[in-house]
Structures
1.
Amino acid sequence: MRTASICLIVLVLAVVGCSPAGGSSPSPSVVPSPSAVPSPSATTCPPLAAPLIPSDSLIGATLDRGASADRFILAFGPRRGSVAPSITLSAVAPPFSMGGSGLPVEVAGSRFLQLRLDGMTIYDDLGRPTFTAAPDQKLQGGPIRQAVLVDDFEGVVAWIVGYDGPGCVTFRRESDGGERLVLEIAHD
């Protein structure tokens, strides 16, 4: 057991040591998490990959119930800054806390995803908010139970999405009628 633990530590250090150094890329980047979402099986769910972020200007977020899936939709406005935004989608487990205060946050569901956007602007040049979404959103009767904004400070916007069941998770970019990222969880 001790040998296995030491080998695991050495492997993690080797992987960390091989990480590329340097600054941010000049274009939007995606940081997919290979174990981002537990799936019922490889034959029933397509592989999950995070899409490119359409803009650095987040203007809205909504939960929506569809006929075959629930959706968490992020809406984007025109690009405002020079920082290349990035996105990380990962499976997480409670306890959850607010980014600035550390206060505990309860999120309904038995499975949880964290959607973290880096390099976001949510205010205009005069300091007025451009992001107009409820920070705590709930749905009843489907797989997505709740989405809670847990961080919105210094270019970081992070949501915890709580859901139930083994429904397939997909994540895509839509451009019809405005730029959006859609996290979708299929009904059972």
2.
Amino acid sequence: MRRVTQIWPAFLVLGLGLAVTFFAWRVIGHQVGREAEVKFDHQVAQAVESLHRQVQDNVSLLIGLRGLFNASEMLERHEFRRYVSEFDIGGRYPAVRLVSFVRHVPAAQKADFERSVRRDRSVDPRGYPDFAIRPAGEREQYMVVTFMEPMAGNEGAFGFDLLSDTQRVPAIEYTRDRGVATASEPIRLAADPRGQVSFALRMPLYRPDMPIGSVAERRAAFVGVVVSAIQVDDLINTYLGRQLGAEYDVAVHDLGIPGMAAPGAGTVLMYGKESKRSGLQRDVTLEVAGRSWRLEFTAPATPLYGIGGELPQVVLLGGVITSVLMFWLTLAQWRARQRTLQLAQQATAVRAAEGLREQLEFIQQLIEAVPQPIFFKDVRGHYLGVNRAWERFFGIARATFIGKSVFELYPDNPDLARTHHARDAELFSHPGSQSYEAAIRDAQGELRQTIYNKATFNRADGSVAGLIGTITDITEQRRVEEQVRHMAHHDALTQLPNRSLLQDRVGQAIARAKRKREQLALLFIDLDRFKSINDSLGHSVGDRLLQAVAARLLGCTRAADTVARIGGDEFVVLLGDVDRPETARHVAHKLLEALSAPLELDGHGLQVTPSIGIGVYPGDGEDVETLLRNADTAMYHAKREGRNNAQFYTPALNGAAQRRR
């Protein structure tokens, strides 16, 4: 009992050290988990936005097709093919299986309709002599797949009557009566031999010379639908795979049309699989052209890679080791003292001194073997001793520094010296242990991020004799954390801001322009025929070309402007404080000239041209989403005008259908 009573300071140091370690472990573990949750929410939001944007792009394609039909008294097959081919379906809409026109054919017109299709030689000189509505049979009306692109690989859908499948009838009638684009239930395409889960976006078409204000009028004027058939696996893998890592699980359920019961109503799994969920979970309901989808995201509760996920364990292990080391040092000091008293009582002073020397040498060897800097101070703050790791870190020999204070250690930074001295005084006034972070410079003058762990030790009478401290270098850990934050907001290939950072900056710029009553402009840039270069010369040349384009864009803009890459070959330039729209046009022409200049990469002489759409705040949109969408619409207009030009957004670009309505 007396022995335990005498060594209680060592156990106190151990207990306090373990308590501080456990507290730090809990706090850092909570912080790491919170950072993982914030990153998870951010990536889920980006993924949902990307998916929603792609669906809206497909709806915009159908709106354009409806405008084309309304502008033509009798649309021909070759006109349909030419219009659809200009959109580069395979490159810009990789999830789309086919785009088609489905004509409404009353039973009385069936024979005439089949003869007209058989004689149609606008695309194939042979016509379609074997064409017939499939499946055979007499029905009151038909919805026949008449035009479709691409035809190759989808021949099985040509002539198919959608109304022959009774499960599709309510959805088609719903589209006809609403008058806007609608999404279908999950379907298996007749033209898909693999039978993948797909869905169809349908846009109703009406005779332009008839009123469509009511449901009855729309039924009377109905002539058919234009359809974009989309394969769900390709849609999710292409657009959510870009935003989420391999550790994320995604499941997509179709919830049907809100407020409308259907045969077999209930949730339908469209993508992923049903599984027991654990870790981070988010469910998002997404409106897809009149239907509701539930997107279920699951990810591990902590990161599976990088130093972030291991940080709590590192802190716990390091704290336990440091606490045990300080306990051992305090206990060893007590044992050394006890040994000294025992030897003093022995007859031979030489043997006593020898035993004490061996004990102290062992303690010194233990301290010298520790790879972290270790130091001892007395209650006045003067250094009593250091180990070799401390000498290497600060580049100071112990023989020249023993007896000096922290003010001699940092002669050029008195504020830092006073901070450390105040921490020492706080520990001496409340004996125990202490831990805090500090930025200090090493022997090479480099700034290092460190963690100080200190604990007091006592004299024989129990009074505080000084402190022992260790320094842990966490610079690399902080660098990795900063790199992760940078990667979350920048494009990995060009190091330009990504879509997330662009939207944040555009939002700030709009708020500033609104407050100062200024204008700003967005230049939406798409490289013409970049896909052909990428496919013919390889992704390596394509990547270097994108880097060269980024450099030229930066060279043509001000430091205060923002140049971002938002995906593929699409770039956006944010111009703040634009005095008039002509300023944006002038910058756009500079970019056209710079990007069109010849370029040589790996022995290949290349020349790419851009199509640029310009949107100006506040006239073309007073929020981020509207301004970006309208600049994108202007860019497509530039492509239709022959590419390699810049066009301002006008409301007329939304298509003839939108203007009429």
3.
Amino acid sequence: MSYDIRLTHPATGETLMLDEPHQLIGGTYALGGTRECWLNVTYNYSHIFRRIMGPDGIRMIYGKTGAESAPLLRAAAEVLADDACENYWVATEGNVKKALLDLATLGRATAARSLERGLARRGKPIYTVGANTRTEGRDDEYATST
């Protein structure tokens, strides 16, 4: 199981796209990067999310904008140790910290982009979770972290 977390446009529900591909790696990722404001995070981290973010865990950002969530994600990451390991699937505080900071990075990127493109007037992008779906005709290759 995993959290498939993405920033979406509130009116269309479509995943927001960045101008340039990002190389953020979660439980699954796009080989060569993706422009999608999306990160898949393993459920293995859920007990740490709940410990530092309360009973809702990472779900506390659902429905929030990137601008609203970025400081919350950074604050949660600050209380965690820097014990990341090479094995993504191990629930260390350092691995969780990296996931939180990666989500905050997406949040900040979309907050800036929303202001540049006037989305703030039409509705702010929000974090959503859902099935790991792809747009038809996409030629991105997706892989699973090892």
4.
Amino acid sequence: MAGQFRNCPNCGGPGEWVPQYGKHFCRRCNAYLPDMVYAAPVMQAVVHAVAHALIAGTYRVYASHSGKALDVEGASAADGAKLIQWTYNGGPNQHWRIEPVGGGFFRIIASHSGKALDVEGGSIADGARLIQWTYHGGGNQHWRIEPVAGGHHRILASNSGKALDVAEQSRADGGRIIQWTYNGGGNQHWRLERIG
């Protein structure tokens, strides 16, 4: 990846190679660039336009490996409430508004609370918990949503480039939602079903 052309999808500024993380970093946005390499700004614009055309609205979000829904634990409306997987029950704490924020990224908002899907503390570490938090526009609240095989998607945090992941491939209700380096597992693939 080092030496390849990289520009930040948020601000268009140059990405700086960070060897210890194997990623490019944008100092303007204080965020790591996603794994996708753009050959030219024109291609970047095309990719972003397609993403925006495919994804906008309110969704149920299901883990591919378990069939369980992305859920705010206990239907809490509080900052810091943990994200889990749970059997779908139709509650608004299992419904998510996916809204473009520019540069090919999206914010993912819990319908019941209006709070954003957030990597706790802005962590870039494997295993960091996913919570809901009042939206503030940080890279830990912006997500790239990319199609993978079988009509599923991977959901990558802007600040870390890591994937939304069900910890330890749990299939149980209450399985923790974390971020983890993308490895292609079903616990990192998500089915999006539009409901509004």
